[in-house]
What we know:
This protein is an alpha+beta fold. The protein folds into two domains: 1-23 and 223-249; 28-221, Galactose-binding lectin (Jelly Rolls, Sandwich), CATH 2.60.120. The protein is built from three helices and 15 strands. Strands 1, 2, 3, 7, 8, 10, 13 and 15 form an eight-stranded antiparallel sheet that branches. Strands 4, 5, 6, 9, 11, 12 and 14 form a seven-stranded antiparallel sheet that branches. A hairpin with a 4-residue loop joins strand 5 and strand 6. Helix 1 (2-22) packs antiparallel against helix 3 (225-248). The model is unreliable at 15-25 and 215-231 (pLDDT under 50).
Amino acid sequence: MLSFKKSFLARALLLALAIWLCTPLHAGIVNTYTNRAAWQAATTDRTDIDFTALGLGAGGYIGYSTATGLTMSGVTFTGYDESNNAHFLYALNPESGWDENFGTGTLLKGPMWYQSSGVTSTYLQVALPSSVTSLGLDLGTITPRGASLRLVVDGVYTGSTITTATNSLTFFGFTADAPVNQLRIYVDSGSLTVTQALIDNVSFGELLSGGGGGGPPQGGETPEAATLLYVGTGVYYLAWRRRRQLRTA
Length: 249
């Protein structure tokens, strides 16, 4: 009997370890938003980043094409071309007639996605300070305007692919059930050749208690590891008990 108890305990511990290893460690997306006012209503302790604070005159630009990129209000912005292992990020205040001019002033532009040269993926990254559970920003693309962007939070696809507008920037926001480290905005094979992503009017904060609205949750809630352990151990015990009853019948 003692031998069986040790065997049962060992198997239960192995089951618990397997469950723990399979439990996602990333934040879960609570809601996504395409309307800034709705996102703001679900967010508290908000900080807004306006790139006009960089002081660029019309037609001016600054390069931040390094691993450290640009940091404002604790948020670090970088751009990266995965195929060529190269950083690319510019802040610019486009003049009238420039393709980047959406009438919002200074914004950030990321690397090009070259369909013809074999570049498979480029992205703009927004690395956040601690305790951020809500993020919103305006997105755009050039060459062409109206291309698709794939949004990835902490390495996990959010389920959202944004098709940007052709005559204005497009808002995207989300709230999460745990602090988020980063958002990556990908331009990849879903877009046309020589496409670049733009971001502006970045805001972040914390999910307001009871905050809702927006789009449907992406993927639902993830059970806690302790809950999975209780359920898994119980199922294992019931299966053992059933086998024992059959042997003694």
